[in-house]
Amino acid sequence: xxxxxxxxxxxxxxxxxxxxxxxxxxxxxxxxxxxxxxxxxxxxxxxxxxxxxxxxxxxxxxxxxxxxxxxxxxxxxxxxxxxxxxxxxxxxxxxxxxxxxxxxxxxx
Amino acid sequence: xxxxxxxxxxxxxxxxxxxxxxxxxxxxxxxxxxxxxxxxxxxxxxxxxxxxxxxxxxxxxxxxxxxxxxxxxxxxxxxxxxxxxxxxxxxxxxxxxxxxxxxxxxxxxxxxxxxxxxx
Lengths: 108, 119
Description:
The complex is a heterodimer.
Chain A: E1 4-5, E2 9-12, E3 18-24, E4 33-37, E5 44-47, E6 61-66, E7 69-74, E8 83-91, E9 96-99, E10 103-107
Parallel strand pairs in A: 2-10
Antiparallel strand pairs in A: 1-3, 3-7, 4-5, 4-8, 6-7, 8-9, 8-10
Chain B: E1 3-7, E2 10-12, E3 18-25, E4 33-39, E5 45-51, E6 57-59, E7 67-72, E8 77-82, E9 91-98, E10 108-109, E11 113-117
Parallel strand pairs in B: 2-11
Antiparallel strand pairs in B: 1-3, 3-8, 4-5, 4-9, 5-6, 7-8, 9-10, 9-11
């Protein structure tokens, strides 16, 4: 079955850049979406179709998808960015939606 | 403004059944790609099921044959009928909208409803 792999955790100092990777079975042709989730809240879409942002999401959040790795980049990290981050794709061979295991971002 | 409101969660014994509801506002459920996604305590997101605008449904292997996704167009509501519940089904269940189809993301989520399967 299709698997997306994310690092379980990442720690970054305020003002620095966080890069969260999503790998596994990606081939580079998929549309990868990213969500963040704060404790007790529903997930929120922050990047879609590899590198587009919904309205209201700051430009500090960006994405890329190359080869077998997609990357969410958060520039000038702020304390409020502390959350769990998930990548997601649609597996066309099974018509199933796949989420990565999630990355807990800690702002030092 | 688009809203999704789940209900129907609670404590249920193993082997029991439960039906979750997801009431939608400001968009038409039957014209969208609607899913259920769950999150076990302290764990990540797990996709459960989807119903396409045309009515086609798909299920995660972990729930196939036990769960049924459906919708009531007159009530603009999405449902998840859960049978033969197991302890490992314990989770917060979210409904989510995928406006444009499976390749596109879930742009709106409900607040979730907690299902606890325990004796």
